[in-house]
Amino acid sequence: MSLQTLSGHDRGQWKAAAATARKRIETRLFIDGRFVDAAKGGRFTTINPANGEPLAEMSAGTAEDIDRAVTAARRAFKAGCWSRIAPRQRMEILYRFAALVDQHAESLAVLETLDMGKPIADVVAADLPGVVDTIRFMSECIDKIEGAVTNTEAGVMHMVLREPYGVVGAISPWNYPLLMATWKIAPALAAGNTVVLKPAEQAPMSCLRLAELFVEAGGPPGVFNVVNGLGEEAGRALALHDDVRKITFTGSTAVGKLILQYAGQSNMKQVALECGGKTPQVFLADVADFDRAVTAAYRGIFSNMGEVCNAGSRLLVDRSIKDRFVERFIELGRDAFAPGDPLDPATNMGPLISREDQKRVLGMIDKGHKEGAKLEFGGGAPDGLKDGAYVNPTLFTGVKNDMTIARQEIFGPVASVIEFDGVDEAIAIANDTVYGLAAGVWTRDLDTAFKLVRGIEAGVIWINSFDEGDMTQPFGGYKQSGNARDKCFDSFKSYTQTKSAWFRLS
Asked: Which architecture characterizes domain 280-470 according to CATH?
């Protein structure tokens, strides 16, 4: 059932689809084109965070399974069944792959919602269309890649070629299980590499189905492999493997630093990181459309339960409009996101990923209290949803940038209003963080906007909007937010390496 037909589904239809999907959950690893059990037979439980109930006992891959998957991927790469086929042939397979994702959207959507708690309406409206768009965009890049013939001395021809790396290891997060995995595997596959994906252990189910659909689309066995497992076991083994030529990771800054170490301890593989963020949205006194700006503020932190690496958690507001801004934020934002059953299409806020994360986020809220911030609304778990890992949308004011809630990535629906006087102080506060993933700027003055764009240390900056974009937009950060760019043509090229060929002609 395609995406186009799913917008009319009601809660009953989604419940029925979820019941059907639960009976068909695949729990094994996907290696060399087929599902296989973990070598050591280990298991881990994946939990539905909306009610705390176990969903499935997933095979827990270990270093031995990672080696099996990497061996299959290396063998497929060396055979040339993917890396050396005609570009248009690779494009056609990936186009079929995208079409199959669309065709099986219903089952993929409910797996995503059951495993991660994301509202089903968000999966259908944003995540799965993004998966399809990413695969199609990267497919279209395949025959656009060009080498070069440089201008050299007479009697010499110099060519610069682009070639795939070989085996790419990918470690994807749980907050957008399918989309973030696709941001990695689509450009890697399109460039001719083979892939071993280690999805987050909190939400691995939909990624297994993705690999199966790739083979169904005509992808050769061994080209795309998925190994479930714990990060400290399977993820570490993938990053340390000497036959992996590039490792790409999205997740916490702390684990990103470990990935860099593992690359150095092994074969000096290429490392692409997209890590944490503490995104500022800067609201100047001359903001043009006040309600639109306030709406972007609360949506920027409460969407996806705040479990977004570029969530606009720091609201930097000019002191002269602070009272009006907070008043309007409370009026518009307090009830805009209501926690509820994620399989109900009317729900726009699901649970956090786990009880542990719920406890951590509530602890951060408590710390905000103790450090002197003023709680305007939220701050606890909603009534009537005690079985799930829910946290109410929360707003703090009176926040100083040295408070814990302003410095640490909360990864929950917690907004902090920080006052400033003048553009220079706004830039200083925005940059006073180890992160630099994204930022928002709200002003009607073009000179001021340019000053902020030049001054803020972030990889993505939105002006008079927030969290918008398309596949042409590079996504990635400065400082400890990482070193890579997802989406865009440059992302595709980053999965290739250049080779210089210098011909001395007789």
From this structure: 3-Layer(aba) Sandwich (3.40)
